[in-house]
Amino acid sequence: MGRKSAPMDWVSSSTAWARGLSIVAIAALGGALAGCASTSDVTNALNPDPPSKMYADADGFMAKGKFDDAAKKFEDLDRDHPYAPEARRAMVMAAYAYYKSGKLPEAVASARRYTTMHPGTKEAALAHHIIAQSHFDEMRGPNRDQGETRKALAELRTLKTRYPDSPYAKEAEEKIKVTEDNLAASEMEVGRYYMKRKQYVAAINRFKVVVSDYQTTAHVEEALMRLTESYMALGITNEAQNSAAVLGHNFPSSRWYKDAYALLQSGGLTPQDSGDSWLSKTWKSVPKLSLGGTG
Asked: H/E/C letters for each residue in the chain?
């Protein structure tokens, strides 16, 4: 019985071996076809265009409004020729192309990479401008989260401080005013919310931020009046008098000062700067403002 079964075992083994060989052959053929399909990619990777041509091509895409294509070409240039003179400029231009295409996270990431690798260089101001503008475009109203506003403000201040002579400095200064106004308005929204619920300590903390950090915004007048009102509600009359005094000194024609004055009078008090209040000390560090007369 053992000898009769041997030929069958050999046939089975041969068949299995043949099938295995066929599978290997098919796999090899598939690999060869795949290799043919990727030949051009491999060739391009091994033999990239000169950096000057790649930059010109990317610039051409920008001129045609093909910003995604431009961003990719600029990034290819930076990857393929990292030490070429065009590579550094290509990095920040990729960020600009992303910004123009509306891909703001990509724009921020590319520009941030540039400021990290090449701080203080000629194009660094542009990189900071792209970051600031990307966050600025994502700003929300005062009753929404202000995370993007704070990021925009931080970058705008960096741009103005480090690159005061750049073509973006004046625009940064104007946008700083907008971001500060938005942040002050947000603090006022929350402060009023707490006041309506008679949570005066929480309200005071919000109004303090406005008069301490955003003194040049239009919201500071109301903030000083709300501080007067909140302190009066808590019976802290000396701070209420201080708030009204600072308001009257800086904004004598403001309707908010008239309201604060009337509120103090109803309690038999008048505006008075004691000189040792946190508010008095804060406002001694800034010049007298001329934003009054809004009432």
From this structure: CHHHHHHHHHHHHHHHHHHHHHHHHHHHHHHHHHHHHCHHHHHHHHCCCCHHHHHHHHHHHHHCCCHHHHHHHHHHHHHHCCCCHHHHHHHHHHHHHHHHCCCHHHHHHHHHHHHHHCCCCCCHHHHHHHHHHHHHHCCCCCCCCCHHHHHHHHHHHHHHHHCCCCCCHHHHHHHHHHHHHHHHHHHHHHHHHHHHCCCHHHHHHHHHHHHHHCCCCCCHHHHHHHHHHHHHHHCCHHHHHHHHHHHHHHCCCCHHHHHHHHHHHHCCCCCCCCCCCHHHHHHCCCCCCCCCCCC
